[in-house]
Specification:
Layout: H1 4-62, H2 72-80, H3 85-88, H4 91-94, E1 99-103, E2 108-111, E3 126-133, E4 136-144, H5 156-203, H6 218-266, H7 274-301, H8 314-331
Antiparallel strand pairs: 1-2, 1-4, 3-4
Helix pairs in contact: 1-2, 1-5, 5-6, 6-7
């Protein structure tokens, strides 16, 4: 149970990190899937225009369609500008549709299916993309089906790969963050553990213990306050011991006098007459005054001392004090008058 706070804080950090990891992986996966689909759609939209441009360039360079049947695959790869080749292989391997290049009269000049020249495309729906050079129709690109949908690949494996990579990165980041959080929590709770140990030592009577202040934050302020409290307790204990020594000294003086006088009377050195008994009585009264003063002091410290207000004759009080001190003052050559 001593590490309960450490476990609570570390658990809170772990929960925050886990939630952040789940949100990050989810958003990253969704974003990757969306952007990849947008990329694929944009690529499909660009492909017809790039194929038309590639065929127009071929016609311009060669002055006609001679040899286009042997270079159709290369032309379509050039049309892709290498963008799709590195990701999915050759353009022709990607296109499941049959493609033909026709001249201006409609004669078949090239066929991706390798059919003999002039063989028509199947009865499937066709798309015709004109090839224009210098504002003149020089041929057509004929596609069985739709070129816009050709080459569309399943994005699931790519998205899964991206998600897996993001998840691994998130797990590594989460573990690193959790480790740093554990170290941080340990640094935060360590001063509190030191304070707990120091408190137990003070409770056991060791008032000299102090806890080093290692920071300027709230924990450091708490540690400094604890040290001030310990110093105050040590000072109060020192004052208490000093007071007890003074009390013992004050009590020892009249007790020693009483003991000596009584032993002298027992040994017959002094007679137990009224005069000597009066002297003993004075010492006993002095002891009673000391005991009463101690009880009054104890009541004052406990907050139980009741203040009784009464009118006082100041002149009479001064005269009584002067009369009480005249004998001692006279012994030292001092004259007191009231």
């Amino acid at each position: 149970m001593r590490n309960q706070l450490w476990f609570k804080l570390t658990g809170a950090f772990a929960l925050i990190i886990f939630i952040g990891m789940v949100v990050t992986v989810g958003l990253a996966s969704q974003g990757a899937a969306t952007q990849f689909e947008h990329f694929m759609v944009a690529n499909q939209m660009v492909r017809p225009a790039t194929m038309q441009a590639a065929l127009a360039n071929y016609y311009t360079r060669n002055g006609g369609w001679q040899g286009v049947d042997t270079t159709l695959d290369a032309l379509l790869l050039d049309a892709s500008d290498g963008m799709m080749t590195g990701m999915f292989g050759s353009m022709m391997g990607m296109l499941a549709n049959r493609i033909q290049v026709l001249d201006a009269e409609g004669a078949v000049m090239a066929d991706s299916a390798g059919a003999a020249g002039g063989e028509p495309v199947s009865a499937a729906p066709l798309e015709h993309w004109p090839v224009i050079v210098d504002d003149e129709l020089v041929g057509e690109l004929v596609v069985e089906g739709s070129l816009m949908g050709a080459g569309m690949v399943d994005t699931a494996p790519v998205v899964e790969s991206i998600t897996r990579t993001v998840f691994i990165a998130a797990v590594i980041a989460a573990l690193t963050g959790l480790l740093l959080a554990a170290v941080l929590v340990r640094q935060i709770t360590r001063p509190l553990v030191d304070l707990s140990h120091a408190s137990r030592r003070i409770a056991a009577g060791d008032l000299h213990v102090r806890v080093p202040v290692k920071s300027d934050d709230e924990v450091g302020e708490l540690t400094d306050t604890f040290n001030q409290m310990a110093a105050s307790l040590e000072q109060q204990e020192t004052l208490r011991q000093s007071m007890m020594a003074d009390i013992a000294h004050e009590l020892r003086t009249p007790l020693t006098g009483l003991q000596g006088a009584i032993e002298a009377m027992q040994d017959g050195v002094f007679p137990a007459d009224a005069e000597n008994l009066e002297a003993l009585h004075v010492e006993v009264l002095l002891l009673n005054r000391l005991v009463d003063d101690l009880r009054t002091l104890a009541n004052a410290e406990a907050g139980q001392l009741a203040l009784e207000k009464a009118p006082v004759d100041v002149a009479e009080l001064c005269r009584s004090q002067v009369n009480a001190m005249q004998f001692r003052a006279a012994e030292k050559g001092i004259t007191l008058t009231a």
